[in-house]
Amino acid sequence: MAPENGNGKKYRVIGTRPIRHDGVDKVTGDARYGADVHLPGMLHGKVLRSPHAHARIVSIDTSKAEAHPSVRAVITGADLPGGIGKPSHAAVHNILADDKVLYHGHPVAAVAAINLHDAEAALDLIDVEYDVLDPVMDVRDAMKDDATLLHDSLMTSGIGEESDKPSNISQHFRHEHGSLDEGFTAADYVIEREFTTAMVHQGYVEPQNATAHVTPEGRVTVWCSTQAAFGVREEVADMCDIPLSNIKVVPMEIGGGFGGKLFVVLEPLAVLMSAKSGKPVKMTMTRAEVLQATGPTSGSWIKVRMGAKANGKLTAAEVVLAYEAGAYAGSPVSMAAMCVLAPYLLEHVRIDGYDVVVNRPKAGAYRAPGATNAAYGSESVIDELAGMCGMDGVEFRLLNAVKEGDRRADGPVYARIGFVETLEAAQDSEHWQTPLGEPSNGSTSRGRGIASGFWFNIAGNASATLTVNADGKLTLIEGSVDIGGSRVVMAMIVAEVLGLEAEDIHPIVGDTDAVGYTDFTGGSSTAHKMGWVCHEAALKIKAEVVERAAKMLEVDPSEVTYHDDATLTASSKPDDKLTFADVAAAANGTGGPITADYSKNSGGAGPGFATHVVDVEVDTDTGKVEILRFTAIQDVGRAMHPSYVEGQIQGGAVQGVGWALNEEYFYDDKGLLVNDSYLDYRIPTTLDVPMIEAVLVEVPNPHHPYGVRGVGETPIIPPVAAIGNAIADATGKRMYHTPMNPGYVITRLLG
Q1: What is the pLDDT of residue 82?
Q2: What pLDDT was estimated at residue 2?
Q3: pLDDT at residue 81, rounded to an integer
Q4: Cβ neighbours of residue 19 closer than 8 Å, sequence gap 6 or more
Q5: Residue 134 CB neighbour total at 10 angstroms
């Protein structure tokens, strides 16, 4: 049954579970992804990548490759016209190296040839002379005064400490209020711990891809799998020095992204080689290239110090967050600082953040960027303090939980939030109430862990266009790429407004020429911002249908009532009834086609909170950890389509399991990535995780027509800490590093 709308009236469509509109195409193979693009005369492009983690480029000789009979274009960093001296300078050099290579797999040159095999062969004909330098792979080593520098011109910016001395620390910032001395003096217990987390990848199935065609008139079309079609347009315009209005980006279906497909990696290269050759150019990455040179999330070093009174009340917290940015500045440390202490009310706080460059691929976004690392540290210490105070994890968190009107640790004041409700749901859950059970054998022990997480969620720009067809159905063109079922949700919102069924709405993801500007699909923003504009566009359609019905009934529009079942009547002619389809069929004769568009830069994104409960069994002989049971509780605001909300929560939890137990980038002593395949970079399989039980708590966001809160990112934040806490409960030993794989766990157990 659909939920109430807050005024005691039941929704018709919102909260139900219609089949997604793109489902059949995807399960039958008819959906077109980026790799499915084939154009007449198309060339194939490949990238020459650095075999070193850190080296100066002494020279590049492309003459042999250019002489290859199949090669039609060769480019190096010198061919990139945009970005030099601009804010995008670093992004440009991440696309093609300038005078240095800064990580294993850094692009150095690219070729386009008649076929893929010749393109690959031509790479071997490019002669590059390198002056190899020592790599800096660890964030703590990179912060040392005597560390090898990646950039001679990078200076630390931040809290009054700008200097003219080059550094690998790009930024240092601080959030602070109260007095740490006062807070820690008032504490009965003080704990200080350090944590490290390994760099991990988003793990999407589909590699990055791009096909570009530049016409003789200079018109550019790019087909790619992206979360940000308009962002691709802007980056291509900037890097390739092409007028924005000359570029059209066609977003194809996307085989996973999780933040990893927000920024360009191939698109400018394909555009430049198409312009140079006069032919369309297609490029697709291999899995090794994806792992080496896209945008994994940061590894980190985190120090947490917290104090609490014996009654469990937190008195102070100090956190230091040092995050790997990769080769160029821009780690998610600022977002980590926003999230690390956000669930708890604290009077005395200091949070220091450091953005640090290292010889690894430039960090990208990965589902709640930065927050999972941070929560691993803070929630582990919270759990340890709870034990010292003689309280269970739920009781301790409830005592310190933030509520509406409380101030977040980094400054903002909360509006209506549902953190307490997630804790109460955890406390009341069957999982929490059920005993752990006996270990399966004498070498194993069981434990239960709990952890909470916060994500701020964002809103942003969105655009949508609705067209009423003569058969009473509607076509919806939306600007957001669909990576999590947003098509069906937008159709449901339009149907709710108009009294129709979700199946009556045909949603289409438009290209950048077909729909108004829309920000990227990310930040858990899509249901909020796009849902809002679809709601408003549908209201405009509804108002126009009333006007047309008035003409057909020959009455004043004020007499017309639009009923919930999409019928219309006039107060002076109660026996005359029109349906939405009747009005649609007559539209061309009553004033012309019925269309509506709406664009909005929305605000008021409601933050998300989650609490996860995990049971594990640890083999104390081998260090292997098995997940026995997993319950993920989350305030979702309003579950627009419960199946997809549950799916988002389950997916985030599974990624968190991988992060906790298996996943890591493993580099050798020369800085070369040695696990660049899914055989060696181990993501969870169905054998590694139980069924994730998703519990939906609905505390509607008052700043949205349907109470929407973003749901996609919050569920990846608690799992790592919850699993670490469960291992500690099982073994009596705390884990301070991810991944908590058998080797690390057994070392801790024996240490």
Answers
A1: 65
A2: 60
A3: 86
A4: 488
A5: 12
User: What pLDDT is attached to residue 368?
Assistant: 98
pLDDT of residue 484: 86
The DSSP code for 32 is -
Per-residue pLDDT at 87: 47
Cβ atoms of 631 and 696 within 8 Å: the answer is no
Cα angle 613-1-9, degrees, rounded to a multiple of 5:
110
| 3 state SS of 449 | strand
Q: What pLDDT score was predicted for residue 673?
A: 98
Where is the domain boundary, 602, 621, 643? 602
What is the domain-level CATH number for residue 449?
Answer: 3.30.365.10
Q: Choose among 194, 197, 263: nearest CA to 224.
A: 263
This prediction's pTM: 0.97
Claim to verify: residue 331 and residue 431 sit in the same structural domain: no
* 396 within 8 A of 385, measured Cβ to Cβ: yes
* DSSP assigned state of 98: S
Task: Give yes or no: residues 526 and 614 share one domain.
Answer: no
Q: Are 409 and 437 contained in the same domain?
A: no
Q: Report whether 308 contacts 187 (CB < 8 A).
A: yes
Q: Residue 11: which of 503, 564, 643 has the closest Cα?
A: 564
Boundary of a domain, candidates 602, 628, 644 = 602
Residue type, 555: V
119, part of any domain: no
Claim to verify: residue 179 and residue 308 sit in the same structural domain: yes
Do 329 and 399 share a structural domain?
yes
Evaluate the omega torsion of the peptide bond into residue 739 and state whether it is cis, within 30 degrees of 0: yes
Those residues with Cβ within 8 angstroms of residue 669's Cβ, 6 or more apart along the chain or in another chain: none
The packing angle between helices 419-428 and 393-400, to 10°, is 160
Contact 43, 72 (CB under 8 A): yes
In a domain, 302, yes or no: yes
Structural tokens at position 403: 């509520």
Decide if 515 is inside a domain.
Answer: yes
Other C-beta atoms closer than 10 Å to the C-beta of 738 total 27
Would you tell me how many other CB atoms lie within 10 Å of the CB of residue 181?
A: 10
Position 407 in a domain: yes
On whether both 214 and 338 belong to a single domain, the answer is: yes
| Averages of pLDDT over each 10 residues, the chain, 751 residues | 61 96 93 97 98 98 98 96 61 94 98 98 98 98 97 90 85 97 98 98 98 98 98 96 97 97 97 98 98 97 98 98 98 98 98 98 98 98 98 98 96 97 98 96 97 97 98 98 94 98 98 98 96 98 98 98 98 96 98 98 96 98 98 98 97 98 98 97 94 98 96 98 98 98 97 86
Which residue's entry shows tokens 């390994």?
198
Given this model, what pLDDT does residue 85 score? Answer: 52
Residue among 536, 466, 524, 505 at smallest CA distance from 22: 505
Helices (H), 226-325: 229-240, 267-277, 287-293
Q: Say how many domains are in the chain.
A: 3
Phi, psi of 153 (to 5 degrees): -105, 5
Q: How confident is the model at residue 161, as a pLDDT?
A: 65
| Residues 552 and 651 grouped into a single domain | no
- The length of the chain is 751
Phi, psi of 227, deg, nearest 5:
-95, 0
Residue 751 exposed, middle or buried by CB count within 10 Å (0-12, 13-18, 19+): exposed
Which residues have CB under 8 Å from 722's CB, separation 6+?
Answer: 379, 449, 450, 451, 612, 613, 614
Model pLDDT, residue 514 = 98
**Looking at residue 293, what is its pLDDT?**
98
Domain of residue 471 covers 458-602
Q: Does 195 lie in the same domain as 299? A: yes
Distance separating alpha carbons of residues 12 and 722, to the nearest angstrom? 38
Distances (CA, A) of 351 to 249, 479, 589: 40, 37, 65
